[in-house]
Amino acid sequence: MSYLKLFKKSFFQFQDLQQAKKIILAKVVGHLTLLSFILAIPITVQTMAIFQSVQQDAQEIAQMIPNFTIQDGNLSVDSKEKGFIYQTDSIIFTFDPDEKRTAEEVEQDLVGNFFSIGLLKNQIIIILPASENLTTLLGSNQLKIPYSNPALSGLNGADLRASLQNNQLPWWIIPLTLSIAIYPTFLSMIFTTLMTTLIANLYLNFRRIKPHFLDTYKVLVFASTLPVILAACVSYFAPGFATDTFIMMASFFIFTLSLKRPQEKNS
């Protein structure tokens, strides 16, 4: 059976999924990549919505930023300018030229999915919503950049306001976000399908059917097609949906359905 025919049958004709054992491994990996791409779409849409929200809030915050310069690695303002904390729908912004707040206090401002950004006396601190993927990539959800960094040597209030107010999301941010999102979803799909394969092999042993790990894995990958599409649709509207658990349970259920035809023939 060709890959295209098996792909079509993976939606409703579950009894034919056992034919996946004859599919070469390269096509199975390709199908796994396709499923990862599907799962990455709602993540990309949600991320772009966050970007757009942050962009609008940044433009709002830009109007609040006073004139300042960087002198000897410290934030310098006119004596009449005072520090402040300003909150939008997605950003908690701290402007503190008087060194009244610490980085730890700025970190404590972080609530839910807010970004916490602080222009402190001697550094910029950016605190992002904590997540496992972010911690894996960056090592922390905090970015602390001292003003002594050469990249910030020319930072000033006027340029920062202009940058925030005129900032537009480039066209390539969507494909870039999608390509980045595929990486964790691909790893997640590998883990989910491997775990489900182990469960399926235990089930086969219980049914006194001699399992072959690779064959079972191939069938499970195609059995996860419909669950992945359903999970992607649900997670689009409910970001907190337990995608991995749903895919694992639904794929295993479809796998058990794929065993019915051989049993009926033997009876």
UniProtKB/TrEMBL annotation:
Q: What is this protein called?
A: DUF1189 domain-containing protein
InterPro entries given for it? Answer: DUF1189
Q: Which UniProt keywords apply?
A: Membrane, Transmembrane, Transmembrane helix
The residues that cross the membrane are 24-45, 171-204, 216-237, 243-259
Superkingdom of source: Bacteria
Q: Which Pfam families match?
A: DUF1189
